[in-house]
Amino acid sequence: MPTLKFKEYSLDLPKEVYLPSDDTDLMINTLEKEIISKKLIFNNALELGAGNGYLSLCVYNNVNEIISLDLNPIAVEYLKKVKEKYLLDKQKILSSDLFSSLDKNKKYDLIIFNPPYVPSEPLNLEKGIDLAVNGGKDGLEVISRFLKEFDLFLLKTGVCYLLVSSLNKINKIKKKISDKKMSCEIIASKKLFFEELFVLKIYFS
Q1: For 2-26, how does the pLDDT look when each residue is reduced to its tens digit (9 = 90+)?
Q2: CB 54: neighbour CB atoms within 10 A?
């Protein structure tokens, strides 16, 4: 169990929980530029696939409430321990397959998702750490499920930050967003050896 330092937090990350990597760094840098440096405050935020908790912690001081969701039970228990250790009263942690555990009538002004995007075999939702990485065919299985309903949970004035890879058929993703009469911008990117990562900023047109 590695102990990692992030901002003022010391985090004992279980081996079954996704280690922060290039995608995490790109999202953190984007959120710091888009939200923290501008001192924006969001009433209620939502992070899906919260995993190691870095992104929820990154924006914690800029929200009045944040719900952090994950399907991996080990990640959920880890997040609860972090919440308790640091008295994160504004954070609520739920076990959830994407939006499944949420009140369908509640909307959020900030949604953050660093999804499993690596092209893989068909998904097995029982397989712990794989849930954080494997995205199924074209890496799009989880992303496509997210895109089907995320707009139902986003306020008309809200914003969503979604990380995707060049391996994910980005034009297909953009088309799904456009079909919902929403706008989508690539606001950050990072080139790796075999792919390029992008952060999409999505909002109602």
Answers
A1: 799 999 999 999 998 989 999 999 9
A2: 23
